[in-house]
Amino acid sequence: YDDVNGISSSFDLERYMSRNAETVHAALDAALTGLECPALLADSMRYSALGGGKLVRPVLSIACCELVGGRAAAALPVACAAELVHAASLVHDDMPCMDDDALRRGKPSCHAAFGEHAALLAGDALLALAFEHVARESSCHVGAHADRAIRAVAELAAAAGAGGVAAGQVADKASECDVTVSLRLAGLEYIHVHKTARLVEAAAVCGAVVGGGGPGEVERVRRYARRVGLLFQVVDDVLDVTRTSEQLGKTAGKDVAAGKATYPRLMGIDKARAYAGELLALAEAELDGFDAQRAAPLRHLARFVAYREH
Ligand code: GRG
């Protein structure tokens, strides 16, 4: 351990991510196997939920469960549920009535591959499956903590709905047509906190809850994850600018090209970078009271989000 931050320099984040992502992928695959529904619905759901996402939210659930002393296996149902909500939101986000994207993760988006009706319903069904999965998995094991599962379902539902992702998306869409909203920093922050950070936060909180974390621990996990979620977006905006100028405007970042509000646009690139640094420091500070070894994955994850180059 380096004695400044109490963090192992030998910790291998890539290995930790890929090992846990593999476990999550297998569990998601199982949850999406044997669905009793028309093949079009089952296929479009599987295509969208198993289609090569990085599985950051589920790995975060597992890391937060382990942070508070829980076993990784206890976090698997909520980890899968967080990814299912995320997948549902991406399917709907790509639809013609939203962002109208033909590509997702380098492949045809769900509506491009299966048609609009199927995509709308695949999103609906993935969202419903998220909650069914947690409820079902938590009621079928001896010694399962139903109280924790109920708290996790409430947390995830709050993050997906009117207090989270859906609200963020409505605000984002409104800002596209309303110049005054799109130019205000508070408006931009509202969009990212709700649209992106809230689900990252819920994934982390659910992990800590099912891991048996106490109220204080869960709150520190919440603040850590909210900051990392926002950090992800600030860094994304900064990278969009660097990528754009590197490529001399050849293929400008989508948001920049569309003239959307971004952190560098509203505060300048240097201040946006400084803000990212602040968010990283604040996120890491929330981990200070935890066991250094258990917190190592989360420290490395926050730094990875901050320092990634694409
Ligand atoms: C169905 C819950 C629900 C909501 C509908 C369409 C909509 C309302 C919300 C859109 C939410 C959205 C697209 C947020 C952006 C999230 C984001 C940062 C995506 C990129 O996340 P990564 O990098 O993606 O984790 P991968 O591909 O790795 O999964």
TrEMBL record:
UniProt keywords, alphabetically: Isoprene biosynthesis, Magnesium, Metal-binding, Transferase
GO BP annotations listed: isoprenoid biosynthetic process
Domain of life: Eukaryota
Pathway membership, UniProt: Isoprenoid biosynthesis
Transcription among keywords: no
Cofactors (names): Mg(2+)
Keyword Metal-binding listed: yes
Gene Ontology cellular component terms for the protein in this record: cytoplasm
GO function term, MF aspect, one: metal ion binding
Homology family: Belongs to the FPP/GGPP synthase family.
Protein name as catalogued: Geranylgeranyl diphosphate synthase
Source organism of the structure: Eleusine coracana subsp. coracana
Gene from which this protein is expressed: ga23834
